[in-house]
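User: Hey, quick favor. My workstation is busy. Could you predict this chain's structure for me?
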Amino acid sequence: MNCKNRFACVDPYMLNRLYATLGKALLIQTRKDTLRGSLIHVQPDHIVLYDSGCEWIVHTEQIVLIMPE
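Assistant: No problem, here it is.
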């Protein structure tokens, strides 16, 4: 995919799903690891999960699977 604007490359369906699950507990599988936590922040290039006092920043390009818990 050849994009001049990086944010134009984000899948709009995935971004809508992330906004719809804001504040809910999720399981996020990335290319490298699986994370669990509450989705507290969504931006086109990253999301923030909160779990047990820790905030995890995940780049949306790395997300493979999103499942509600």
